[in-house]
């Protein structure tokens, strides 16, 4: 069995824990940002509506910055102010509102879980992190802890990317912060630290600290309310480890939380030596041929053909211009031929590859895919009627296109 982490990595002094809680909450009360979901959580008397409001915000904030989320959140809560309202919406409506926010499966899973609460749980949200995670599809450990602590006052910790960074710096944790063993230790720390009387505020304060002060680069250590508890900050101040036993002594043995021997302290980096992550795999490269088919509409305005993606997988259920994945290093002539064959299936008539006009390339980076769209256009003369059996396609004006559930990548195209 691996050696347990030495006590100096942990929060084992009750007096220090209490002081850290007090300092962090006092700072949060004075410096917290005014965000719409916080206002709702603080003023909404109905527990289920409060839980729903926090839930929506936490799902939207996964992998997305606060500044981007605010407008989406306000529009969402205005359109679907309750779980019951969301449960009655169509997936098409959800996708349309979510379009541009990224990671589109989040909206779909949120609605699926809302429908389950209405149909199977009598419209009542689970009240504990354990039940939230067990009963609601798509709700993981972090989201469950956030909802339970902020909405229902459960004294449970949370660990997101911001909390990982703060805790790793507070305790000089230099092992791979993405590894399951380190993540479990960080959850244990968060559960020890969380303030029992104000768990929701404490968790938000810890996340707020990571988002605004203990940032990845150029952290504002001088403004940090808990710097006196931060081992990384003390090491930055004093340079080399002091002669008395300290966190560095762990590195002599097999401490599971110390930096690996091949990653020595870089004094020029200071506290940003932490956290440490193993190098990410580079995103895989993909190429896709996309054609903007244009016809003259009945009122004279141009119309464009969009088709719906499959209900599962990347960008599930969203609309796009007819597109076809390409093999790497395919010659342009062959690209045109394959795209023309693909378009024929939608048009119900032959399409000449030579008629496809090359427009250019659009690059869009997904979390794990470096996607290149090879963009063509084709202007169609006369009336073009789609096969009625192809219900997953439609002609739209430019205005209707932007109002549809289309991805940011397609808007670039």
Automatic annotation (TrEMBL):
Location(s), subcellular: Mitochondrion; Nucleus
Record field: catalytic activity: Hydrolyzes free adenine bases from 7,8-dihydro-8-oxoguanine:adenine mismatched double-stranded DNA, leaving an apurinic site
Cofactor: [4Fe-4S] cluster
GO annotation, biological process: base-excision repair; mismatch repair
Family: Belongs to the Nth/MutY family.
Matching CDD domains: ENDO3c, NUDIX_DNA_Glycosylase_C-MutY
GO-annotated cellular components: mitochondrion; nucleus
Functional description taken from the UniProt entry: Involved in oxidative DNA damage repair. Initiates repair of A*oxoG to C*G by removing the inappropriately paired adenine base from the DNA backbone. Possesses both adenine and 2-OH-A DNA glycosylase activities. Adenine glycosylase active on G-A mispairs.
HhH-GPD domain mapped to chain residues: 60-212
Uppermost EC category: hydrolase
EC number: 3.2.2.31
Record's cofactor remark: Binds 1 [4Fe-4S] cluster.
Protein name: Adenine DNA glycosylase
Keywords: 4Fe-4S, DNA damage, DNA repair, Glycosidase, Hydrolase, Iron, Iron-sulfur, Metal-binding, Mitochondrion, Nucleus
GO molecular function, one term: metal ion binding
């Amino acid at each position: 069995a691996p050696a347990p982490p030495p006590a100096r990595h942990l929060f084992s002094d009750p007096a220090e824990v209490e002081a850290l809680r007090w300092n962090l909450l006092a700072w949060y009360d004075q410096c917290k940002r005014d965000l719409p979901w916080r206002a709702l959580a603080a003023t909404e008397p109905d527990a289920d509506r409060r839980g729903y409001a926090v839930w929506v915000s936490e799902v939207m904030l996964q992998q997305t910055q606060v500044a981007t989320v605010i407008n989406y959140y306000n529009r969402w809560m205005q359109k679907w102010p309750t779980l019951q309202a969301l449960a009655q919406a169509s997936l098409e409506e959800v996708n349309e509102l979510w379009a541009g926010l990224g990671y589109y499966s989040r909206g779909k899973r949120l609605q699926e879980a809302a429908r389950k609460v209405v149909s199977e749980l009598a419209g009542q949200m689970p009240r504990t992190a354990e039940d939230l995670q067990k009963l609601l599809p798509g709700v993981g450990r972090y989201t469950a802890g956030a909802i339970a602590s902020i909405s229902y006052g459960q004294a449970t910790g949370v660990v997101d990317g911001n909390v990982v960074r703060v805790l790793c710096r507070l305790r000089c944790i230099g092992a791979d912060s993405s590894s399951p063993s380190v993540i479990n230790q960080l959850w244990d720390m968060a559960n020890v630290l969380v303030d029992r009387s104000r768990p929701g505020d404490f968790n938000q304060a810890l996340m707020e600290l990571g988002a605004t002060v203990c940032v990845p680069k150029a952290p504002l250590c001088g403004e940090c309310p808990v710097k006196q508890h931060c081992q990384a900050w003390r090491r930055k101040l004093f340079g080399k480890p002091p002669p008395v036993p300290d966190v560095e002594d762990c590195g002599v043995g097999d401490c599971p939380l110390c930096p690996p021997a091949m990653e020595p302290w870089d004094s020029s980096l200071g506290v940003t030596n932490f956290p440490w992550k193993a190098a990410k795999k580079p995103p895989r490269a993909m190429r896709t041929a996309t054609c903007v088919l244009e016809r003259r509409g009945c009122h004279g305005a141009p119309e464009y053909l969009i088709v719906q993606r499959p209900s599962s997988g990347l960008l599930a259920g969203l609309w796009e211009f007819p597109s076809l994945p390409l093999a790497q290093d395919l010659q342009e002539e062959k690209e045109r031929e394959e795209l023309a064959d693909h378009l024929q299936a939608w048009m119900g008539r032959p399409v000449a590859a030579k008629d496809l006009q090359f427009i250019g390339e659009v690059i869009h980076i997904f979390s794990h895919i470096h996607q290149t769209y090879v963009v063509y256009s084709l202007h169609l003369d006369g009336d073009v009627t789609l096969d009625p059996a192809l219900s997953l396609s439609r002609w739209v004006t430019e205005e209707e296109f932007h109002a549809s559930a289309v991805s940011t990548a397609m808007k670039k195209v």
